[in-house]
Amino acid sequence: MIKTRITELLGIKYPIIEGGMGEKSGAKSTIAISEAGGLGCVRTDPLHRIGVTNAVEVLKRELKETNESTEKPFSVNIKASRYLPSEGITEQYRQCFELTLEEVEKDSSLKRKLVAIVTSAGDPRGYAPRIKEAGIKWIHKITAPRQLERLLREGLRPDAVIAMGYAAAAHIGWAHLDSIVFIPSVVAVARNEGIQFIDSGGYCDG
């Protein structure tokens, strides 16, 4: 067990969090990571890229499978972007969010284990208040310090942020800030506001 503020916040043994990596982050990987002491993450994105026409039904099935297969904490990743390449995809993500809250409300077991919703790749302002109202931890992925600063100016305070510099696969955000430059600047903002910080990608300890 490794005790950190993040492990205490999320009720996990190790400060390791699965990313919502499309078809790579299904129920099976979520269960395995949570069972091993990290925080597994059921994804909703990018299911349209692998030919899934009903992301909501897939999410419902995977939430059920995860909930029935582990007693450990896990999370769900919701893409917040309004600008997606295929018509109807944005609406499916909104429906995935609504489904998640509905399932949590009617299932006490899921409510206990689904400890966080991770918003990513867009504007989370339409999601954040409702996540907080549901008693779920809110984690938001950012690619530039100004994204966190804007949320704070608008009175929105994530429980934690995941900072994704360009070394984190270089597939999200337009800032193109290398992690080694980006991470310290986010830490400074998060620390001043008492927000927990999670680094994402591009590092090893030798």
Structure in words:
It is a single chain. This protein has 206 residues and is an alpha/beta fold. Helices cover 41% and strands 16% of the residues. It has helices spanning 5-10, 27-35, 55-69, 89-106, 108-113, 128-133, 145-153, 179-193; strands at residues 40-42, 74-79, 114-120, 137-142, 160-164, 196-200. A 6-stranded parallel β-sheet has the order 1-2-3-4-5-6. β3 (114-120), α6 and β4 form a beta-alpha-beta unit. The chain is globular. Mean pLDDT is 84; it is low at 83-87.
Strand-helix topology:
Layout: H1 5-10, H2 27-35, E1 40-42, H3 55-69, E2 74-79, H4 89-106, H5 108-113, E3 114-120, H6 128-133, E4 137-142, H7 145-153, E5 160-164, H8 179-193, E6 196-200
Parallel strand pairs: 1-2, 2-3, 3-4, 4-5, 5-6
Q: Which short descriptors sum up this protein?
A:
single chain, six-stranded parallel β-sheet, 6 strands, globular
